[in-house]
């Protein structure tokens, strides 16, 4: 046997070994990222129900019976002073603390606990006022891809009509106020190059301008939703990458209306 075939075999084995090491490292990193948030959920939050001894001060009749996440924000703030809230979608894997920095890049690759992380953290737009809430509050989270279901990756399930029909409510509270339930009224496959709709608008010069923005969101939504929106209402927008329609420029937007208490 000549040396050349032997050399080829050795090279191929070396490549296979390197690939195996790479995937092992990648898997271990992903596992550590998931375990970090599992621990945060376990230590700082508790799931209750709307009718459980009045623990939840958001008695909206149509959400009765949905699991609600109570959060120890004081403890979270000790862990990370950038904590501003918590977001959860019942009966899904989305159940995370929300942070906010002075820019929109810090938490792209930094976890809630301050570790370097490909998963980053769920974070509010740096320009949002988390104490008063703008008319539109924007939360970002990674779609990790590669079959991973942590962070905002499972938002892509909303491309399926059956999933949307069974998961129409988002819980979003801040460290300042228990805002409670938000009802989804638009699911949008968005191209960030498009000037047709600016989902990053936080406030509006007039009530009419706000309603025009809401109407455009409804027009672009892949579903129609029977949700009545008034001129002074507040909107929550969840944003994650979704490459199936517009490649790297694609975003999936989940937009929800803040529901009234009582």
Largest sheet: 8 strands, mixed, barrel
Counting copies of identical and different chains, the oligomeric state is single chain
Alpha-beta classification: alpha+beta
Give the class-level CATH name of the domain at 81-258.
Mainly Beta
Overall, the morphology is: globular
| Low-confidence sequence ranges | 9-29
Strand content: 15-25%
The total strand number stands at 10
Write the layout of secondary structure elements.
Blueprint: H1 3-44, E1 45-49, E2 67-71, H2 73-79, E3 83-88, E4 95-99, E5 122-124, E6 136-140, H3 161-166, E7 169-174, E8 181-191, H4 207-220, E9 235-241, H5 243-246, E10 250-258
Parallel strand pairs: 4-5, 6-9
Antiparallel strand pairs: 1-2, 3-4, 3-7, 5-6, 7-8, 8-10, 9-10
Can you describe this structure?
The chain has 262 residues and is of the alpha+beta class. It is built from five helices and ten strands; from the N terminus they run αββαββββαββαβαβ. The chain has helices spanning 3-44, 73-79, 161-166, 207-220, 243-246; strands spanning 45-49, 67-71, 83-88, 95-99, 122-124, 136-140, 169-174, 181-191, 235-241, 250-258. The strands form two sheets. It has an eight-stranded mixed beta barrel with strand order 3-4-5-6-9-10-8-7. A two-stranded antiparallel sheet has the order 1-2. The longest helix has 42 residues, at 3-44. It is globular, with a radius of gyration of 21 Å. Residues 9-29 have low confidence and may be disordered.
């Amino acid at each position: 046997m000549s040396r050349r075939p032997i050399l080829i075999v050795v090279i191929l084995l070396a490549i296979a070994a390197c690939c195996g090491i790479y995937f092992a490292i990648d898997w271990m990193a992903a596992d550590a990222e998931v375990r970090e948030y599992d621990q945060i959920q376990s230590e700082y939050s508790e799931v209750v129900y709307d009718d459980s001894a009045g623990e939840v001060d958001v008695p909206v009749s149509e959400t009765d019976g949905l699991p609600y996440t109570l959060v120890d924000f004081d403890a979270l703030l000790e862990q990370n002073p950038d904590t501003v809230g918590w977001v959860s979608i019942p009966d899904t894997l989305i159940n995370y603390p929300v942070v906010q920095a002075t820019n929109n890049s810090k938490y792209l690759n930094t976890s809630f606990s301050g570790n370097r992380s490909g998963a980053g953290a769920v974070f509010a737009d740096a320009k949002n006022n988390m104490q008063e809430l703008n008319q539109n509050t924007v939360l970002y989270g990674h779609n990790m891809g590669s079959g991973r279901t942590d962070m905002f990756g499972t938002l892509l399930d909303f491309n399926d009509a059956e999933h949307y029909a069974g998961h129409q409510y988002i819980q979003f509270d801040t460290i300042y106020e228990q805002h409670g339930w938000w009802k989804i009224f638009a699911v949008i496959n968005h191209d960030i190059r498009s000037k047709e709709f600016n989902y990053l608008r936080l406030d509006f010069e007039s009530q009419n301008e706000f309603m025009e923005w809401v109407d455009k969101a409804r027009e672009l939504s892949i579903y129609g939703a029977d949700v009545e929106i008034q001129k002074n209402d507040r909107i929550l927008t969840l944003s994650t990458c979704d490459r199936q329609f517009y490649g790297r420029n694609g975003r999936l937007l989940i937009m929800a209306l803040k529901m009234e208490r009582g």
